[in-house]
Design goal:
- The structure is a homodimer.
- Chain A is α/β, with parallel strands linked by helices.
- Chain A contains eleven helices and 17 strands.
- In chain A, the strands form four sheets. A five-stranded mixed β-barrel of chain A has the order 6-9-7-8-10.
- In chain A, helix 2 links the parallel strand 2 and strand 3.
- In chain A, helix 3 crosses helix 7.
- The first copy, chain A, starts with a strand and ends in a 5-residue tail after the last helix.
- Chains A and B meet through strand 13, strand 15, strand 16, strand 17 and helix 11 of A and strand 13, strand 15, strand 16, strand 17 and helix 11 of B.
- Strand 15 of chain A pairs parallel with strand 17 of chain B, so a sheet runs across the interface.
């Protein structure tokens, strides 16, 4: 195991598209989505362990989730859990984690992982990261993983590949990033064969990514710069709590990846889904003969087709005559809605919040 | 208040057509169906109080519901609550109650009421009973109330009227009883103008109904006959517990009403519904502009029509794109089914019982 390799797991998101299962106080990444006995976060950490030691795994989450993260991952030392005092998207998160790791180990290389995705091909994943680490450790390079698209999905970011890098099969220069194209554009993207889905998995050295912040997002970098080192000391928490809220809210894609000229993409076949929505979950889940997904719960269906039904605990669901529906029953909320309208869930969440209050969100 | 008048309230049923709200351990009659703060049973007792004193109200229920009945009706003395040790339909229930009352008061007249119906016109109800009592107190007559049918409902029993009784407006001899006709027959029934729905509300004297048992259902009567009177004594319970289970299971309609030649019907306009099913509840409930009934719960609908949505406690239901559905969420069961298929609910209940067990029934 290369002792300069680190992993940053981002686990502070809200996952509102999975409401009412994903809730403000218990978002998607902490849920046992597939009934395996492990949350998506736990699965994410388990998956990386053959490559990175627990001491080198840094979890970045919102302070509100400190308890859950500690409970779910007792093997990760408390000093490796970075608690964001405010929600500022991925750029500040990554900049802090890189600053923190760089202070410990200026030769560190880092893979940054979302905590709420599905990856079925674990060996391919580890091999891809191994090759990715070697690539970024040899120069000032920012690497993102690209998934071969299987449909013109409009919910993903797309990466257009440029020239192939000599000596690194599967790694290309990145030509363009496109966030959530419309259907027509997505179809064209796929036809050209030049586009990948952006998996949101990044590799770089701590030095390279901080260099990129210096070039493309000084404002964010300034938040985390100190005269005297505070990272890894007892002062880090108070320093972050005073500084972090002033960071602009920004995604790493927008802050760095879309601007930098040293960005590369490594194509990978990982059995990947971002599990970004009920529809995405439906698509990757095993189905009954009628095309129903009964998400880890007791279900009795009559004349139901192509639906996803999810409930918790010992609840049973009896459903008749539904076609293409999401039925999601969790705690104090029951939602029934056509899968085709799942993009409306975020509006629904707003409606529920304003009409019935925070306790349902 | 006539001191020989009694009321028997039958409240031992299971109400399985209202599953999953009506449950084996808390059937329909004990539920606060309309969010008024009173159960259907409590509403039934309240409704009769202007006509019959609490001391003359006899509740007959299954022994399993003793606690619930006492809790819901503290004003009824314990000696007025008759606990059936087994489920034997209405004939044994009525025969016991009549025997019990007759022993106390051989001149008693009795109105027998279901405990789980809706009656909106309380004054008309009381006037009808008052007239009915006078009619049965004057001779050996069995009287049932008939509701003017408003649709060819196939879930009700139908009563065909014969000759008008002179001097008693609205009271006719009964020509035939027909239990749950098919749609075509129900339509013909309504067209003739000779048919009423059977409301299951009966009036007679204790003596008359016991006489009818003697003529038409000796087997049941024998169960309740004693050499020495036990009714109203400390021996009644053990006597009933040893005898009652041997009674044949039979409805009063089949045992007596369809056979006797002294059966009369009094037509009544009571704003009545037997609340026999979700559809019946839907029909009598106030509706939103889109024709939805949101049964006493917090609901947010999008593109929903003609549906009934029921949940308990502080649960919210978000529903989109449903038309003509029942959504019923109660405790450990969620049921979603087209209103048009509500007749299947009893089969569903059987399926659930055999697949998931008693705790869902």
């Amino acid at each position: 195991m290369n002792k300069h390799r680190y992993c940053v797991v981002m686990c502070g998101g809200i996952g509102s598209r999975f409401w009412p299962f994903s809730r403000t106080d218990m978002p998607k990444q902490f849920l046992d989505f597939f009934g395996t006995g492990k949350s998506l976060l736990q699965l994410t950490v388990d998956r990386i362990l053959p490559l990175v030691s627990p001491d080198h795994i840094i979890l970045v989450t919102n302070a509100a989730y400190a308890r859950i993260v500690k409970d779910q991952l007792p093997e990760i030392k408390e000093r490796n859990i970075l608690l964001e005092p405010a929600r500022r998207n991925t750029a500040p998160c990554i900049c802090w984690a890189a600053s923190h790791i760089y202070a410990m180990d200026p030769d560190a290389s880092i893979v940054t992982l979302p905590s709420d995705h599905l990856i079925l091909k674990e060996n391919a994943f580890l091999e891809t990261l191994e090759e990715g680490f070697r690539f970024v450790e040899e120069g000032e390079r920012l690497l993102t993983l690209g998934i071969n698209p299987t449909s013109p999905n409009t919910g993903y970011g797309y990466i257009q590949r440029g020239a192939q890098v000599t000596g690194y099969p599967g790694i290309c220069k990145v030509k363009t990033f496109t966030e959530k194209p419309n259907k027509e554009m997505a179809k064209v993207f796929i036809e050209t064969g030049e586009f990948f889905w952006n998996a949101g998995i990044f590799l770089w050295t701590a030095k390279s990514v901080l260099q990129a912040f210096l070039k493309y997002d000084k404002e964010t970098l300034a938040i985390f710069e100190t005269e005297e080192n505070v990272y890894g000391t007892e002062w880090e928490t108070s320093f972050i709590n005073s500084r972090f809220p002033h960071a602009p809210s920004n995604s790493i894609d927008y802050a760095i990846m879309e601007k930098a000229d040293n960005v590369f993409v490594k194509s990978a076949d990982l059995g990947w889904s971002d599990l970004g929505s009920w529809k995405a979950l439906y698509e990757v889940s095993p189905k009954t003969q009628d095309g129903n997904v009964t998400q880890n719960c007791n279900v009795l269906t009559y004349n139901c087709k192509d639906s996803i039904i999810a409930a918790t605990g010992d609840k049973i669901v009896v459903a008749s005559g539904l076609e293409g529906y999401i039925v999601a029953d969790n705690d104090n909320v029951l939602m029934i809605c056509p899968i085709a309208e799942e993009q409306q869930i975020k509006h629904v969440v707003n409606d529920v919040k304003s009409r019935f209050g925070e306790k349902y969100i």
